[in-house]
Amino acid sequence: MGKALCLTFVLGLLFPQWAIAQQPIAPVPMTPFGDGQDSVLTGNLQYQVLQTTFVIVVPAGFVTDFASTPRALWSVIPPTGRYQLAAVVHDFLYWDQGCTREQADAIFRVAMAESNVKPYERDLMWQAVRSFGQSAWNENAAAKQAGKPRIVPAAYMNIPPLVTWSDYQDQLMRQGITPAPAPATPPVYCTAGVSATLPSP
Fold first, then answer.
1. Which residue, 18, 33, 47, 148, is most buried by CB atoms nearer than 10 A?
2. What pLDDT is recorded for position 3?
3. CB neighbours of residue 7 within 10 Å
C-alpha cells in the first residue's frame, strides 16, 4: 500500500467526516426521449456507498427523470444539478423496491453528499422525499403490478427520435416486455446509508 493511500485509509478511520467516496458516481451516456422529460441510460451507472464495499448498479436501459420535482419548484430545485446522478440512483431504488423507502432515501442523502451537493440543498431534497415520496413509491409499485417496464432491453435501445417515454413504454408492453418483480431478499447495500456519517462539503 502506498504512503498516500495508507494515510487516506488511516485518516478515514480516525476522522470519518474526512472520508471520501471510494468510487464517485461516474457519469454514463444517456439518451433523452422526445419531450426531454425522461432519459435512458446507455451504460451501467455504478455507485459505491461511502467507504463500504457495497456497490449499487443502475442497469443500462433504465429510464429516469432525474429529480422528480414539481415544475413550480424548478427555480429552486431543478430536475438536474450536482445531485442528478444521485437522483438516478434514487429513482432506481424506488423502482426496484428491494430496499425500504427509508433506506432508499438515506442512500440518496449520502449520494448527494458524496456528489458535493451543498448541505442546505441536500437536506432540503432529502426532507422533500421523506415528506412527499410515498406517492412516487406507490406509483412505481402500481406500475410494476400493471406490467409497465422501466428498463429498456438491449434489443430495443434503438429508440426512434421524437418518441416520448410513455409512448415507447406502451410499445414495449405490446412487445411483451414486462418488469422484474422486487427482489425476494433485500440487497446487501440497503442499510449502507442509514446512520451514515456524511462527508464534509
1. 47
2. 39
3. 11
Is the residue at 6 inside a domain?
A: no
Is residue 166 included in any domain, yes or no? yes
C-alpha distances in Å from residue 32, one per residue of 57, 66, 110, 173: 20, 11, 26, 20
Q: For residue 51, is it within any domain?
A: yes
Q: Are the C-beta atoms of residues 111 and 103 closer than 8 Å to each other?
A: no
Structural domain range at position 27:
22-193
Question: In total, how many domains does the chain have?
Answer: 1
pLDDT given at position 158 = 95
Query: Is 200 inside any structural domain?
Result: no
Residue with cell string 487516506:
8
Name the stretches of the chain with pLDDT < 70.
1-23, 67-81, 199-201
pTM for the model: 0.84
Alpha-carbon separation of residue 72 from 68, 75, 86, 139, 185 (angstroms): 12, 7, 22, 21, 38
pLDDT for the residue 172:
98
